[in-house]
Amino acid sequence: MKTKLVTALLGAGVLASLAACGGGDGGGSTSATGAEASCSVPVTHPDAPQVTVWAWYPNMESVVKNFNEANTDVQVCWSNAGQGADEYNKFQTAVSAGTGAPDVIMLEGDTVPVFAIQEALVDLTEHGADEVKGNFSEGAWKDVSSGDAVYAIPVDGGPMAMMYRKDIFDKYGIAVPTTWDEYRAAAEKLKAAGGPLFGDFPSNIPAPTVALMEQAGATPWQYSASDKTKLKIDLDSEPAKKVLDYWGGLVSDGLVGTQDQFTTEYISGVVNGDYATYISAAWAPGYLTGAGAGEGADKGTWAVAPLPQWDPANPVSVNWGGSTFAVTSQAKDKALAAKVAKGLYADDASLEQGAKDQVIFPLNQTVLGADWFVNNQTEFFSGQTANKDVYIPAANAYKGSTYSPYSTSFYAEFTKQITAMNNGEKTGSQAADDLQKAMVEYGKQQGFTVQE
C-alpha cells in the first residue's frame, strides 16, 4: 500500500526535485532527528534540545520567538521549506528517502491523510493529544483524526460564508440570500437588471465545492486509520449531484462566471465589481486585502453573511482550508516534537498577532471566546463584527470532515470534471458519475478495498 501510494503521488506530478536544505556554512544545530539544520530564528536557550520545524505562515518568526522564550526544556529550529505544494514535494521526497524530514511540519488539513497513510506521521494520542483536545471544536478535532488516531494539532481553519458587495446589492435592490434557492433567485434578478455576475464557479479550486457537497448532506469519503485498506467513496450521491447540478445550472444560465480563482484576472474582477458575491472562508478578507481588494473605490463595499443553506431549518456549517502541525515519523524524540506541535502557535500573543488582520482564523477556543476577537470590527467589512455574527458560529457548528487519502489525484480529477461542466460538455450529475468511477478505479489501483 505504502509503495503504491508513493508511486501514485509521483505519477500525479506532486513531487518536484528536492533542493538541498538545512545546514549552511553558518553552522547547524542538532535537531531531534539528529540532522544538521539551519535555524531561521536564533534559539533563545542554546543548551536545550531542538526540534526542527517546517512552516510557512508570515508571522512564524514571531511565533517561534514566543515559543522559544517561554520554553527552557525545548527550542524550535524553524525554517521555511516553501508554502503548500512546494513544502509537500520536499516532504514527500524525504518520506520516500527515509531521511531529511523535519521533526514537526505544517500541513493543510486535507493533506494530513495523504502522509498519514504512508506512516509518515505520528499518532499523537500516544503523546498527550488529549491534553489540548478541549481547546478545539468537535469539527476541528475530527479534521485531524482518523478513527482513534490523531495525526495533527489544529492551528487555523476556514469556516465558510458568503461575502457580498453592498454597493451592488443596494443598487439593484438585492436582499441578502439565506438559502440557495434565494441565491439563484437573486442571481436571476441581477442578470435581468443588467447587473454583473452573481458569483463564480471555478474549476481550479475544487475544495470549496466538496465542502458545499457536504453541506447538502454528502459524505464523499469514509476512511479510518484503524484499517488502512478499506475506503468508502460516495461522490455520486443524491446530495453531491444536487450541488453539481445546481452550480452547473447557474453557469449554463449565465448567472455566475467560471474564472479560475487565485489569479490576477479573478482579483481584478473582484476589485472591479464583476461579481456580487464571493463564496469563501474566514481567511478570505486577509487574502483579498493582500491582493489589493478593499482599497480605493473598492473600499467599504464588502459585507459578509452566513453561508446560504439548503434547509434553513437544519443549517449546516462547512469548512474550507486551514493548517495544522504534525509530528513526522522521522523525529528522533517524538515526545519532545509533540510538545512543540501542541504548543507552537498556541500562545495568546501568537494567536492574536495571526488573527488581528484576519490573516488566519484561529481555531483555539481561547481566541474564539476572547472579547478582542469576538467583537473585532473588521476593517475590510466596514466595521462589521464578522467574527461574532458569522465566522465564530460557523466554526463552532462545524462537525468535521473526512478527507481523501489521495487528495491531489482527487482534486486533479475533480478539476477535469468541473471544467467539462463549465464547457457545457456534461451535466453536474454526469460529472459526479464520472468522478465516482474514476476515483473508485484509482483507489483499487492503489490497493484499497473500495466500497461504493
TrEMBL record:
Protein's UniProt keywords contain Nucleotide-binding: no
Entries under InterPro entries matching the protein: Bact_solute-bd_prot1, SBP
Signal peptide per UniProt: 1-19
Pfam family, one: SBP_bac_1
Keywords, comma-separated and alphabetical: Signal
Name of the protein: Sugar ABC transporter substrate-binding protein
